[in-house]
Design goal:
By secondary structure, the chain is of the alpha/beta class. The protein contains seven helices and six strands, in the order ααβαβαβααβββα. It is globular.
């Protein structure tokens, strides 16, 4: 499938960002997650038209992916998105430090939702990382923790982006989760060349629980992200490349 030169696609993407994002955030601020998901698919299709010289790509999946942590509320986002767009690449950065419960639920969700799951893991084994770093670095050791985050989260994610070449990235982040996220919108530009869309950005914990119960979705009761340490911190994925 022929692609336009990277410089040209970047220019077209920047034009789309300037034209569409301010309006999108105004219109989507009070929208249902399903409406936001539909907007993201339309955006990906528009950018797909820009990236190739043939419209035949519209018969296939547009350049879009979603990420999952396989965390407590992961099933909600996975169900909502894959119901609307079956076959979407679902990127899971498995750090290798997940708890057993996370792996059990991830296996169940992959099977029950028929996920097109793309697992990306660190190039180094957890045992090797622990040995070289003396265990999982504490958040207080900023330099070591930053290096650890790069190894187990950022490098695998960037590898996924390089391989899948999406233009739209669906993420499950929510406004109420951290102080950093309270300063974002549900649609943002990520300078890695991605339109980042958070369909449940304005949803509350109660909203997610109600959705999960409505569809009898499983949840990971025991979850630990070593790049965050506690729930109020950022894992680095959303701060590593901010809006330009």
């Amino acid at each position: 499938m022929p692609q336009l030169p990277r410089v040209q696609t970047d220019s077209l993407l920047q034009g789309f960002v300037a034209r569409s994002l301010p309006t999108a955030n105004r219109h989507l601020r009070d929208a249902e997650p399903s409406t936001i998901i539909n907007w993201s698919i339309d955006a990906a299709r528009a950018l797909s038209d820009s990236r190739v010289k043939s419209a035949e790509t519209l018969a296939n999946l547009p350049p879009i992916m979603m990420t999952t942590s396989m965390g407590v509320n992961a099933a909600v986002m996975l169900h909502a998105v894959t119901t609307r767009l079956p076959g979407i690449p679902v990127v899971w950065v498995d750090t290798g430090f997940n708890l057993a419960d996370t792996y059990r639920v991830a296996h169940q969700l992959e099977r029950d939702l028929n996920l097109n799951l793309k697992v990306y893991s660190p190039r180094m084994t957890p045992e090797r990382i622990r040995t070289l770093m003396g265990g999982v670095p504490l958040a207080e050791d900023e330099q070591q923790h930053r290096r650890f985050t790069e190894l187990v989260k950022l490098e695998p994610f960037n590898r996924a982006v390089d391989e899948l070449q999406p233009r739209v990235w669906l993420t499950g982040i929510r406004r109420e989760e951290t102080a950093y996220r309270r300063g974002l919108e549900c649609v943002t530009y990520d300078s890695r060349g991605l339109i980042k869309v958070a369909p449940f950005f304005h949803a509350t914990e109660a909203d997610l629980e109600a959705y999960r119960r409505r569809y009898s979705l499983p949840t990971t009761r025991h979850y630990f992200d070593p790049t965050k340490v506690d729930a109020s911190r950022e894992c680095g994925l959303h701060t590593a490349s901010s809006a330009a």
